[in-house]
């Protein structure tokens, strides 16, 4: 067996300063895990050769590690060679380099150097060999695995792909990567040769390929192929007449996961959960390993854990770490020599070697690189990533989703080479400055760190716009994204209540005469509507009578139906919140007493629950005033204004409370048949060319809109 | 079925192995425990003919009622007209041209156990589509059937021509992570429906006219979101009513059915779909796969009709499809009062009806010969179907043909791959290949 292990530097690892293959899994770098896995799954004892392809910049570091870890000498018949490829970044380039070197003969296993796995490769290799014997054109076998437990959080289906394959021969017919929810159409020409096609979703590419040598030739011929999955596979499938065939192999059991942006912290959780056995912290194969597994937590014998600290199940405290009095660790992974100060609370976070969190800090869902330092009373919000050697100043709060690094983010105009020039001189400077700050001193040369992100005496630059490429710590769902959407599998159930209102009859004519909101006087009318509603509640007046009263007001003031609807709706919104000062004392009791805390998930849910109750009670009335789509669009517009606390909508002191819940409220209205699909989509369309600021709420609703769009297509 | 039905005889009364086609589906229903059957016929002529046959010749134990619908009425509209008559919880809808030895009872049980809204009988293709199709080209005239978990139908596309693309909606990919789309199965048009659900679907979707092109795909398509088919409230009501019925197997006996000429019959027992424990209302579209080797075919085309005639007589099928013992020596069926000349050859898998006269040196191979036929001296009949009272002159050769009742051939006629209408006569010495006689009148 031969294996090519690719250690390319990924984009996502740049701010962190650690290449993915060196990301620690427990106590070891990821590449160690990959090598052990390969060694374990190798078939024949003799002649196993592993080629590690690394960029020249990290080849030295890698060789040093291999030397130290004992891989340098052939051990149990496995020979490891390091190939330093000049500046290769993509899979395609690395393999073209290998092809050029002309060292790999015959079939080989291609795997990324950052894979953590325990699945058995043997059946896949045997199946591949059998196919090769039967058909020399069998180019490659792609290994797929079921989405594993916690590595990919629900909601992030980015990793899954849609595969169409022949159920008998396992020949791959179609591969859709990064498959997002959307209608899939399957060309029927693939049925010309077979009677059945299996369509699988919920599988992931494991990043392991078993290739024939021809694959290297093919990559050399097509020098524009960068990635196997997104260039080579579609290319081969599109030119099937050339004869090369691809196959899939589904790993039935076992664990395979690659260190990548969204999976890293999940992988660690899986390791602590022992899904990756035998690669678990207390089974390092190292005789001096002293990690002990006790009641769901791993604590190294040499670590100090203060008696009054609390460490919950699923945590790992690495060698030489120190957890002080009153600290609380909830599902946290601590590397070597970490330090957690007194009374700090850490939740689902991961600390690399020598990271330090001082006293009374709050850290949740964060990733702290080597020697990262968080000073006392600091607060790291969900999804923070602190790279190597960064410092967060005392009592500072790092906002959610920030990525902090000592490397300077490249600005748009700056080209790659310039970046290198500056780094040569500046890098040392920044490092010293950060070290000085970490030691509590003042740096000799001031560096313009982003102090608004890391605090006045912090060190680090904020990396923005990393988006999904960053090492995103899995968000604790709703708190981070503000979404209350459940996991995708329960989607159908969630939306079954939604039924669109068919209220388009006469009123769908083209007169889009939406009044200019600016011209509406702040008025008596709103107060009157609101008061009528409140009185109706107190006196228990029936909906029909309330409608008559409101209609009377409407005619008297010469208003539209939309106006009535808008103010009824706003009254309902305000009924979900504690009374404002302008409310008359006799109606005070209608309002809830308790203020809700919209920062927490509980509070938001509570607010939605209240609104749901209001809508349930009043939707019959509201529907009477939403005569057309245009009225519904009006309603949405006024809800936007309410959220912005526009002066035009008086008595809306807490409108901003709802702004974060905008999509959820719209969804609620949709469920209660107050808003129909067409109206919501029309509203979005109307905003299409609006200024960025005005599109704010449309953007919040992107997911909902997509879903509606989707649903509409489906109903067609 | 032109020209076989040129004289107005309904398809279901065409003879298969010398008995009306309708006997086969009726027997299938009877054996499954169905009690009441509605036969839905298009037009007065057909209805009268079926009624006549039922009163004079049918001797089964079913309670059968014949209902007439207008001619050329789309099948689903015909179904709409008779839905009021269906009072059982589930019913069977089957085409009158099905000749099947699969157990309808097993299908009903599957339907019941799965609490399905619809259970479809799937047969296997005689020749896999891939053998008839070039690599890289879409096959034509196949049913694309997508199955999840081996029996839940999640995709259904039927088209007599070529389907270019199959559409898989996102919700299906989410819900079913493993779908197998097969082309080697055929919808046999034997369905079990949940009555209330079907009624709701028919009421809410006026546009549905065709059975396999529209109604079945519609139900399959909306199984995850029934509300999109029948509306919010209706879907909820249906789901609520689908509480597992207590009657279970007992329902089988007290059932009722209806059927139609080119489609339709029904029966019943308990059942419903997945509204268990307040889970989202979802429809379960179930399939019942004809067991390998069991006889299951449709006589819905001339080819199919000829195939069915031939295949029911083959030694491995004849005993259980016809319920008659073959002549053990020759593996064929020859009525007792057939008069045979000298050196007559009747091959295995052939059937000769009563009162036939076979002339000297005539031979009949793999064919069905109706009653009262005369086969002249030295004539050969191979792979053909002869209805009643067909007369062949001397030295005729008939290959792969269907000769309707009353056809007469003069001396030395040679026919290959022809279908002749009732009463047609061919003059002596004529030769025809691949002809329909008389030529079909043009239709607008």
Poorly predicted ranges of chain B: 243-279
What do the pLDDT scores of chain B average to?
A: 83
CATH class group of the domain at 85-253 and 276-298 in chain B: Alpha Beta
Uncertain regions of chain A: pLDDT < 50 for 5+ in a row?
150-157, 412-419, 467-522
Give the biggest beta sheet of chain A: 9 strands, mixed
Helix content of chain B: 10-25%
Oligomer: heterodimer
Strand order of the largest sheet of chain B: 16-19-22-25-28-31-34
Number of helices of chain B: 13
The end-to-end span of chain B amounts to 17 Å
Shape of chain A: globular
Structural category of chain A is alpha/beta
CATH-level-2 architecture of the domain at 85-253 and 276-298 in chain B: Alpha-Beta Complex
Q: What is the tally of beta strands of chain B?
A: 34
Q: How many strand segments of chain A? A: 35
Largest sheet properties of chain B: 7 strands, parallel
Strand and helix map with partners:
The complex is a heterodimer of chains A (716) and B (444).
Chain A: E1 2-7, E2 24-25, E3 28-29, H1 30-41, E4 48-55, H2 56-69, E5 78-85, H3 91-101, E6 108-112, E7 115-117, H4 122-134, E8 138-146, E9 160-165, E10 172-176, E11 184-187, E12 196-211, H5 214-221, H6 228-238, E13 245-251, E14 256-258, H7 264-272, E15 291-294, E16 297-300, E17 304-305, E18 310-311, E19 316-317, E20 322-323, E21 328-330, E22 333-334, E23 339-340, E24 345-347, E25 350-351, E26 356-357, E27 362-364, E28 367-368, E29 373-374, E30 379-380, E31 385-386, E32 391-392, E33 397-398, E34 403-405, H8 416-438, H9 451-454, E35 461-463, H10 478-481, H11 491-495, H12 524-539, H13 543-557, H14 561-574, H15 601-625, H16 629-643, H17 655-659, H18 662-671, H19 677-686, H20 696-700, H21 702-715
Parallel strand pairs in A: 1-4, 1-6, 4-5, 8-13, 16-19, 17-20, 18-21, 19-22, 20-23, 21-24, 22-25, 23-26, 24-27, 25-28, 26-29, 27-30, 28-31, 29-32, 30-33, 31-34
Antiparallel strand pairs in A: 2-3, 6-12, 7-14, 8-12, 9-10, 9-12, 15-16, 34-35
Helix pairs in contact in A: 3-5, 12-13, 12-14, 13-15, 14-15, 14-16, 15-18, 16-19, 19-21
Chain B: E1 15-16, E2 19-20, H1 23-31, E3 36-42, H2 43-56, E4 63-69, H3 75-82, E5 90-94, E6 98-100, H4 104-114, E7 118-124, H5 129-132, E8 143-148, E9 152-158, E10 165-168, H6 170-175, E11 178-182, E12 185-194, H7 195-204, H8 211-221, H9 227-230, H10 232-241, H11 250-253, E13 259-260, E14 285-289, E15 296-298, H12 302-312, H13 315-322, E16 333-334, E17 339-340, E18 345-346, E19 351-352, E20 357-358, E21 363-365, E22 368-369, E23 374-375, E24 380-382, E25 385-386, E26 391-392, E27 397-399, E28 402-403, E29 408-409, E30 414-416, E31 419-420, E32 425-426, E33 431-433, E34 436-437
Parallel strand pairs in B: 3-4, 3-13, 7-14, 16-19, 17-20, 18-21, 19-22, 20-23, 21-24, 22-25, 23-26, 24-27, 25-28, 26-29, 27-30, 28-31, 29-32, 30-33, 31-34
Antiparallel strand pairs in B: 1-2, 5-12, 6-15, 7-12, 8-9, 8-11
């Amino acid at each position: 067996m031969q294996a090519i292990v690719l250690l390319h530097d990924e984009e996502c690892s740049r701010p962190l300063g650690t290449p993915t293959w060196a990301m620690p899994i427990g106590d070891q770098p990821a590449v160690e895990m990959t090598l052990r896995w390969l060694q374990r799954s190798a078939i024949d004892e003799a002649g196993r050769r592993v080629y590690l392809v690394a960029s020249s910049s990290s080849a030295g570091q890698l060789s040093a590690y291999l030397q130290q870890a004992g891989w340098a000498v052939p051990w149990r018949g496995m020979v490891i060679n390091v190939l330093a490829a000049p500046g290769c970044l993509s899979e395609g380039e690395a393999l073209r380099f290998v092809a050029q070197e002309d060292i790999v003969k015959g079939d080989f296993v291609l795997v990324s150097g950052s894979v953590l796995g325990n699945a058995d490769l043997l059946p896949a290799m045997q199946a591949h060999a059998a196919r090769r014997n039967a058909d020399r054109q069998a180019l490659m076998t792609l290994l797929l695995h079921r989405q594993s437990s916690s590595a990919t959080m629900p909601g992030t289906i980015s990793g899954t792909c849609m595969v169409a394959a022949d159920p008998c021969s396992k020949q791959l017919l179609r591969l859709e990567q990064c498959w997002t929810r959307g209608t899939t159409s399957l060309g029927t020409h693939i049925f010309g040769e077979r009677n059945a096609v299996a369509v699988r979703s919920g599988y992931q590419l494991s990043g392991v390929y078993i290739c024939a040598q021809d694959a290297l030739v093919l990559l050399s011929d097509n020098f524009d192929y960068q990635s196997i999955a997104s260039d080579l596979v579609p290319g081969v499938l599109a030119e099937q007449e050339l004869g090369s065939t691809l196959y899939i192999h589904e790993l039935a059991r076992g664990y395979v996961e690659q260190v990548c942006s969204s999976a890293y912290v999940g992988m660690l959780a899986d390791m602590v959960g022992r899904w990756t056995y035998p690669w678990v912290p207390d089974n390092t194969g190292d005789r001096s390993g002293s990690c002990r597994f006790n009641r769901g937590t791993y604590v190294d014998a040499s670590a100090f854990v203060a008696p009054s600290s609390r460490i919950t199940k699923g945590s790992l405290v690495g060698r030489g770490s120190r957890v002080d009095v009153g600290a609380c660790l909830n599902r946290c992974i601590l590397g070597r020599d970490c330090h957690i100060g007194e009374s700090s609370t850490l939740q689902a976070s991961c600390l690399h070697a020598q990271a330090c969190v001082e006293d009374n800090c709050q850290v949740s869902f964060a990733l702290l690189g080597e020697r990262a330092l968080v000073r006392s009373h600091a607060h790291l919000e969900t999804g923070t990533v602190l790279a190597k050697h960064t410092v967060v100043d005392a009592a500072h709060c790092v906002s959610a989703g920030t990525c902090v690094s000592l490397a300077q983010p490249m600005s748009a105009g700056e080209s790659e080479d310039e970046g290198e020039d500056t780094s040569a001189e500046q890098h040392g400077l920044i490092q010293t400055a950060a070290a000085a700050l970490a030691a509590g001193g003042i740096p000799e040369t001031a560096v313009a760190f982003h102090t608004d992100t890391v605090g006045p005496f912090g060190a680090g630059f904020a990396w923005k716009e990393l988006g999904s490429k960053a090492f995103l710590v899995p968000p604790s769902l709703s708190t981070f994204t503000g979404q209350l959407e459940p996991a995708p599998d329960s989607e159908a159930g969630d939306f079954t209540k939604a039924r669109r209102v068919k209220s388009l009859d006469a009123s769908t004519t083209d007169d889009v005469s939406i009044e200019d909101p600016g011209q509406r006087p702040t008025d008596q009318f709103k107060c009157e509507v609101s008061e009528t509603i409140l009185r109706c509640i107190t006196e228990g007046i029936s909906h029909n009578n309330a409608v008559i009263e409101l209609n009377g007001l409407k005619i008297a003031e010469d208003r539209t139906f939309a106006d009535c609807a808008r103010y009824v709706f706003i009254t309902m919104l305000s009924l979900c919140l504690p009374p404002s000062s302008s409310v008359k004392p006799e109606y005070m009791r209608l309002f809830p007493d308790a203020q809700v805390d919209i920062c927490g998930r509980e509070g938001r849910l509570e607010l939605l629950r209240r609104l749901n109750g209001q809508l349930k009670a009043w939707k019959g009335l509201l529907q009477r005033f939403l005569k057309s789509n245009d009225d519904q669009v009006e309603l949405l517009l006024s809800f936007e204004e309410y959220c912005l606390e526009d002066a035009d909508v008086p008595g809306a002191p807490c409108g901003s409370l709802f702004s974060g819940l905008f999509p959820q409220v719209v969804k609620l209205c949709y469920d209660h048949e107050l808003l129909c699909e067409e109206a919501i989509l029309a509203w979005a369309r109307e905003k299409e060319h609006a200024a960025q600021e005005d599109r704010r709420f449309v953007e919040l609703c992107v997911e909902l809109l997509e879903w509606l769009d989707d649903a509409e297509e489906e109903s067609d | 079925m032109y020209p076989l039905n040129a004289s107005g005889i309904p398809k279901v009364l065409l003879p298969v192995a010398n008995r009306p086609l309708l006997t086969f589906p009726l027997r299938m229903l009877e054996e499954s425990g169905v009690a009441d059957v509605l036969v839905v016929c298009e037009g007065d002529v057909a209805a009268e003919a079926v009624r006549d046959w039922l009163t004079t010749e049918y001797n089964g134990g079913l309670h059968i009622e014949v209902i007439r619908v207008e001619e050329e009425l789309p099948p689903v509209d015909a179904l709409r007209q008779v839905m009021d008559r269906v009072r059982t919880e589930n019913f069977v809808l089957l085409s009158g041209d099905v000749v099947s030895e699969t157990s309808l009872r097993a299908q009903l049980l599957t339907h019941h156990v799965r609490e399905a809204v619809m259970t479809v009988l799937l047969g296997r293709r005689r020749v896999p589509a891939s053998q008839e199709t070039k690599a890289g080209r879409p096959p034509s005239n196949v049913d694309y059937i997508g199955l999840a978990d081996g029996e839940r139908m999640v995709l259904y596309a039927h088209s007599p021509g070529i389907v270019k693309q199959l559409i898989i909606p996102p919700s299906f990919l989410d819900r079913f992570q493993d779908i197998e789309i097969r082309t080697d199965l055929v919808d046999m048009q034997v369905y079990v429906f949940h009555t209330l659900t079907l009624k709701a679907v028919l009421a809410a979707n006026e546009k549905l006219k065709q059975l396999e092109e529209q109604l079945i795909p519609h139900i399959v398509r909306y199984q995850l979101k029934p509300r999109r088919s029948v509306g919010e409230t209706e879907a909820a009501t249906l789901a609520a009513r689908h509480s597992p019925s207590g009657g279970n197997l007992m329902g089988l006996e007290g059932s009722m059915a209806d059927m139609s000429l080119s489609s339709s019959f029904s029966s019943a027992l308990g059942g419903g779909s997945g509204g268990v424990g307040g889970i989202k209302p979802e429809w379960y579209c179930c399939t019942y796969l004809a067991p390998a080797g069991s006889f299951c075919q449709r006589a819905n085309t001339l080819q199919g009709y000829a195939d069915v005639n031939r295949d029911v007589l083959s030694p491995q099928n004849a005993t259980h499809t016809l319920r008659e013992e073959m002549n053990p020596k020759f593996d064929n069926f020859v009525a007792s009062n057939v008069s045979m000349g000298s050196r007559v050859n009747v091959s295995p898998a052939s059937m000769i009806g009563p009162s036939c006269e076979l002339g000297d040196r005539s031979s009949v191979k793999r064919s069905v010969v109706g009653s009262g036929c005369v086969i002249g001296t030295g004539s050969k009949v191979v792979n053909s179907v002869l209805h009643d009272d067909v007369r062949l002159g001397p030295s005729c050769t008939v290959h792969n043909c269907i000769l309707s009742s009353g056809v007469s051939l003069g001396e030395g006629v040679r026919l290959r791959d022809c279908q002749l209408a009732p009463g047609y006569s061919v003059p002596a010495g004529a030769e025809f290949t691949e002809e329909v006689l008389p030529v079909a009148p043009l239709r607008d």
